[in-house]
Amino acid sequence: MRYIPSTDHDRDAMLQAIGATSVEALFATVPESMRLRRPLRIPPALAEADLVRLVQGLAGQNADAESWSSFLGAGCYNHFSPAVIHHLVSRGEFLTAYTPYQPEISQGTLQALYEYQTLVCLLTGMDVSNASMYEGASATAEAILMAHRITGRRGVAVARSIHPEYRQVAQTYANQAGLRIAEIPVGESGTVEPAQAASAVSEETACLVVQYPNFFGGIEELEALAETAHRAGALFIVCVAEPVALGLLRSPGECGADIVTGEGQGLGTGMNYGGPALGFFATRERHVRHLPGRLVGETVDQEGRTGYVLTLATREQHIRREKATSNICTSQSLIALMATIYLASLGPRGLAELARRNLLMADFARRQLGKVAGVEPRFTGATFNEFVLRMKRPPARVLAQLRKKRILGGLDLGRFYPEYADCLLVCVTEQHRREEIEALTAALGGVR
Amino acid sequence: MSDPRTTVGTSGLIFNEPLLFEQGSPGRVGFSLPPCEVPDKPASALLPAGLLRRDLSGLPELSEVDVVRHFTRMSQWNFGIDLGFYPLGSCTMKYNPRINEDLVRLKGFAQAHPYQPDELAQGALQLLWELERYLADILGMDRVSLQPAAGAHGELLGVMMIRAYHQARGNPRSKILIPESAHGTNPASSALCGYRVIPVKSGPRGVVEPEAVAALMDEDVAAIMLTNPNTLGLFEEHVVDIAEIVHAKGGQVYSDGANLNAIMGITRPGDWGADVIHVNLHKTFSQPHGGGGPGAGPVGVKRHLAPFLPVPTVEKQKGGEGFLLDADRPKSVGKVRAFSSSFGVMVRAYCYIRSLGPDGLKRAAEMAVLNANYLRSRLADSYQLAYDRPCMHEAVFSDAKQLPHGVKTLDIAKRLMDYGFHPPTIYFPLIVPGALMIEPTETESKETLDQFVDAMLAIAKEAETEPETVTSAPHKAKLRRLDETRAARQPVLRWRAKPGS
């Protein structure tokens, strides 16, 4: 076996040193009755070349955004990933290290995570960020639990314009903690109306949660919503599923957010059929001891040189056990590193230009597609790189016809929203060429 | 003092590298966009001015070469499995096959969207379907959810399903039994689901005794969470009796599979009575640890818990050849993450299992146990064993023999760095004072183990003859010991621009 170096000779020498007669004898504490008496039901070992052939065959059965013209977004975005990201994170020193428990020989990971924390703070306009979490939906659920811990309240108001799977995850976590979730409806602008939000928030509300830009691409009125939450003594949580938008939009921190969570997948990490992803989580200085997850802090070594360590561990499960702020153990370090490299490469100008390009491409597409007979914008409000179209013909039928032209036309919203069963969610990024948008327009025009 | 001619640890040309934010020059950029093919307009022509951000100040302005050097230099301050032996107990730091890194980047995986129609994701779905079956057979379980993003996430899901199961029978119950040797995630996950944690003491042999469980077990106990092999590296030999005691009162047996590497193909948690188990794909199934994630923590369950699995599951089409994502599970606990899994991690685990096959997996477990016993046996004279009996995949020692010389576990750990090794896990499990938990894994050769033993023996000798060399270590790392107290007392958790700059 190519990953196991021991030869029979080594094995015998080791057994002799131990004073054991056989490898089998080392398992003497496993009672006979509990032994598996047959080989595992797994196909025989493959040589590397055969593995490559097999797995290439599997990968080849999937549509990919290079061979297909895809307008799917909905929480997983197709952005270009510069080659340096893949090369740098492939370095074994980053790839094959673990959680930096021993800071003297882990400064690479630690400094990178400190830089990541800073970048998240700069993007979100917040004071502190943790060193990353699993992904956006569970990070948002953890934010709701944190708001409950801080306020002691059990009510949660969430906008219906939040990603449906994020709401489902929030509900799953809330069920365990005995929290009650109320939904705020979506208005004709494609965002929640602050007046509707106000009636969903009371003295029993721990937090008000919105997505920015929201699931429909719309841009919520954060300042008014923050005021609504704060008037009732609730925390205001803003979740960002498409972080590229923050290159253009005012930061949630500037608009009064108390916690900003989100999904960092859009920052150069690729789509990967939905994961691994990158949850980010930032808050105000005063809440730092309530944060879930790992934190990296600056300090000095014995000789006074600056260095970084994992810190404030007294919040965490390995110290606090059942009294910890969360059960979270590790983070998504390597994906956080990818996002750090991505943002370092783009810088302020690159990110602003990229965000503007997304806006321009999506705006162009929205105008073109809106001209097609039987297709119209569903909402009136401004959008970033996604928008909703109402179709005269059933979206499922439209999408099936587009597939024949190797186009993935977007998401059939009926899957999540019965009230928008006639709608399609379309995403356009810098990865699309104008001719793809024109081809989609023509194909939509030809749908029967 | 170590012999510089034979010690692998040395010091080389290591660069200092300032933070990203302290570098660069206005106007520099390491990224390019294709020409704009649509009418170019300022953002303010499309969005109300009040929504637009004024600046992104603080973000660094660097060229591509600046970025490459920055991160390459920083990478050289890290220790990883690729560099050497990394016997971090309970973390199973085995070699991470490189071919898996290539395969995960195939465009049919890397550029697939989670919402593309099932008929255009058949390869991905087949991979997930088969991986579920492989894991189910390794674990002796009926179904496996691939959704959780980490071991702790899997625990949380497992406890949620146990709670939903009891709830469906009328009473969620209020307590969970957890041995004191367990990982901290066990009690933390239980608490998140509203359970009160009842600690169970280990017996004199380092394992949980059935009597201890029987004394605590009643009809208000929802489950016991048992790590097997446990964090002392010992097989919980009474697990069948314990499972019977818990089942007799209607409780569930949660098996923490963190240490599955020791038993693959040898014995199966499902056959001992486990109802739920999570496994860590980043430990046993070679997903690279990445500096602390991403990992994944699939959860296996017995048939009676399958109705509560999170959605979607991957199913075979009825009467057809194809695969589909199925969200129709009315009793499901819901979802613990968006989309269906950390798919890239699943690809690597699948590739690993297919590369080893049934014999290779069993051999991996055997060699992991052999290597651990070899270290146990060779170090037993110089370091105090927590339990002097054959171990499974890891051996737990303590600093009891070094403490009289003023040398403690932390010092031994730091000194190992000078010899070119990553230290073992230290001060865990909590029930062994000054614990040194050593897990070699199967991917280390006898020569490497011998070098490590030589280093440990040299340190034991140094502890007697020149303890200050040990207590002042590391001497060769980029930095000396760091002031963790200061970091916690005066937290500085991010860079900030200096006033006036």
Write structural notes for this entry.
The complex is a heterodimer of chains A (448) and B (501). Chain A is of the alpha/beta class. Chain A is 36% helix and 15% strand. Chain A has helices spanning 8-18, 48-59, 83-89, 92-95, 107-124, 136-151, 164-177, 194-200, 222-231, 317-320, 333-370, 395-403, 434-445; strands at 69-70, 128-129, 155-159, 180-184, 205-211, 235-240, 259-263, 279-283, 296-300, 306-310, 375-377, 386-391, 407-408, 411-412, 423-427. The longest helix of chain A has 38 residues, at 333-370. Chain B folds into three domains: 1-77, no CATH class; 101-353, Type I PLP-dependent aspartate aminotransferase-like (Major domain) (Aspartate Aminotransferase, domain 2, 3-Layer(aba) Sandwich); 360-487, Aspartate Aminotransferase, domain 1 (Alpha-Beta Complex), CATH 3.90.1150.10. Chain B is built from 14 helices and 13 strands. Chain B has helices spanning 64-75, 98-104, 107-110, 122-139, 151-168, 185-192, 210-216, 239-248, 269-272, 343-379, 409-418, 446-465, 467-471, 484-489, and strands spanning 143-145, 175-179, 196-200, 221-227, 252-257, 276-279, 299-301, 313-316, 323-326, 384-385, 395-398, 425-426, 435-438. The radius of gyration of chain B is 26 Å and the shape is globular. The two termini of chain B are 48 Å apart. The mean pLDDT of chain B is 96. Classes of the chains: A alpha/beta (448), B alpha/beta (501). At the A-B interface, helix 1, helix 2, helix 3, helix 4 and helix 5 of A face helix 1, helix 2, helix 3, helix 4 and helix 5 of B.
Brief rundown of the structure:
The complex is a heterodimer of chains A (about 450) and B (about 500). Chain A has helices at about 10-20, 50-60, 85-90, 90-95, 105-125, 135-150, 165-175, 195-200, 220-230, 315-320, 335-370, 395-405, 435-445, and strands at about 70, 130, 155-160, 180-185, 205-210, 235-240, 260-265, 280-285, 295-300, 305-310, 375, 385-390, 405-410, 410, 425.
